[in-house]
Amino acid sequence: MADPIITATGLTKSFGPTQALRGIDLTVERGEVLAVMGPSGSGKSTLVHCLAGVISPDSGSVVLDGTDLTALSPDQRAKVRLQRIGFVFQFGQLLPDLTATDNVALPLLMAGRSRRAANTQAIAWLDRLGLGDQADKSPGSMSGGQAQRVAIARALVTRPAVLFADEPTGSLDSVSSESVLGAMLEVVRESGTTVVLITHDARTAAYADREVIVRDGLLSGAYASVPA
Ligand SMILES: Nc1ncnc2c1ncn2[C@@H]1O[C@H](COP(=O)(O)OP(=O)(O)OP(=O)(O)O)[C@@H](O)[C@H]1O
Prior knowledge:
Blueprint: E1 4-15, E2 18-29, E3 33-37, H1 44-51, E4 59-64, E5 67-68, H2 74-84, E6 85-88, H3 100-110, H4 115-128, H5 144-156, E7 162-166, H6 174-191, E8 194-198, H7 202-205, E9 210-215, E10 218-220
Parallel strand pairs: 3-8, 3-9, 6-7, 7-8
Antiparallel strand pairs: 1-2, 1-4, 4-5, 9-10
Helix pairs in contact: 3-4, 3-5, 4-5, 5-6
Domain ABC transporter: 6-228
Pfam families: ABC_tran (PF00005)
Protein name: ABC transporter ATP-binding protein
């Protein structure tokens, strides 16, 4: 039965004269892994930033897990992001000199958990991502694939409703990329986390349940709406 966790309706967004989004309707089902594909500059990041409440569309609405993000102030949206959304980027989100455990524990400490509880959770997530024996190493001394697993653990440790992953394996070779995507998909399937995955790469998109294609600020193709 359909159980949407994100419902976006009529999204438009311009930056000066550039119309980045020109009227997008999109529904993401709870527990679904959705790939967002499209050429460079087509509007993928702008769409995902609107879906995650990072920016507000010029018109249209985004309801995420029952909350209308477009009715909230920037501060309220920031709170929703902290509590219900995880992010993984291509690189740059980890503190390279802290240990993997400290990196993953950080969002829990920011949410007010004790150091002891945060570390226990962090180590458990590192373990789930195959890094149980790397918990005391710093991402700066790890391979790119290992560091991305730490980033994924950090994004999931707060048990977000939705994980937004923007080219999460874009800086990895194909073997590491497949291994990291496989590990990520295993833990999100286990935890029932919804994933919105931006990618240029068809092999990466193949890990998703469904793909949508953004072209010139519009969704194109037959995959834009959930099959009946
Ligand atoms: N903050 C901004 N200021 C001005 N123009 C912007 C801004 N953000 C995006 N744009 C423009 O909006 C359009 C869509 O950009 P967007 O980053 O969403 O595309 P994309 O599909 O994610 O591209 P890429 O795959 O290269 O990351 C582009 O023409 C881009 O130059």
